[in-house]
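Task card 7
Instruction: Convert sequence to structure tokens.
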Amino acid sequence: MIAASKHHLELLTACVIYGTVGIFMEYLKDMSVGSIIFYRVLFGLSAILCYLAITGNLSQLALKKKKKYLLLLGILYVSQMFSYYSAIRYLGASSAVLLLYTDPVYLTFLAPALLGEKNTEKTIFALFLGLIGVFYVTRPEGGFEQIAFGSDYLKGVVFGLVGGLFSSGVIISVRYLRNEYNGLTQLVWQSVISLVFLSPFAVTLPGQVLVENLYTLMLFGVMITGIGAVFYIRGVAGVSAITGSILTLLEPVSCIFFDYTVLGSDVHSGMLIGCFFILAAAIVISLDNCVFLRKFIFGEKLASSIKLPFWKKELLRPQGK
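Output:
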């Protein structure tokens, strides 16, 4: 019981840390999205490598089979981060993180095509809930007619939705590589691959700008990619997929909380309504029936005979945002 509570706390702590992304983005000045991601990943990767060296686990980073899919994971990961952070720049963290959580909507379409899994009434219902949520999150208070073509708002919505699409690709790739590489190993290699693709942004960043933002970048990388990822992976390892899927919903909630309380961003009613529907869709897609919810609430063990399709299990986010 104590061990389970520890894993719950680790996972919740990681989600709260992930929710601070909007604060860091607000304090980083005169930097492009690509350069921010590069240095965040660089400092975070350094922290993880130090952690693995101290714990004597550097050997787990050895490359095995499916290397080209590891490369694909890295490409999808950097694409997802670039889209997500761009959405934050245009929309704010609250709307961006909710749009990122639309990946179950994409998986509802992708799973039958790529994985041969059939949609059920439950997945269709979750898709319906998710689409309603997207409608409310993306709808400005004045209505869609207020959105000008080429406006920052429209760009933010597009980046957010594309980020959700790339996130669904990351989820599928993570599962495919699961038997060859554990979560932390995947995180390290996808980070290395990201640094290669993002290096042009780092080269073109003026040295003075880097120095001015260095402390924030170091803290950003260590907190999100380092501490957050380690807590996340340790927590995920000790909970069921159902429990983990529900606990990770704290991330968008904490992101909205920090966005409102720390940054003073407006949280309109449509965002809250959309938040409810998107999170409801994530819960529905993670639960096979109401028995799961009862067992989650009362802490009963799940029957070993019950199996979820892997893409539902992988709604947990191992990439550390």
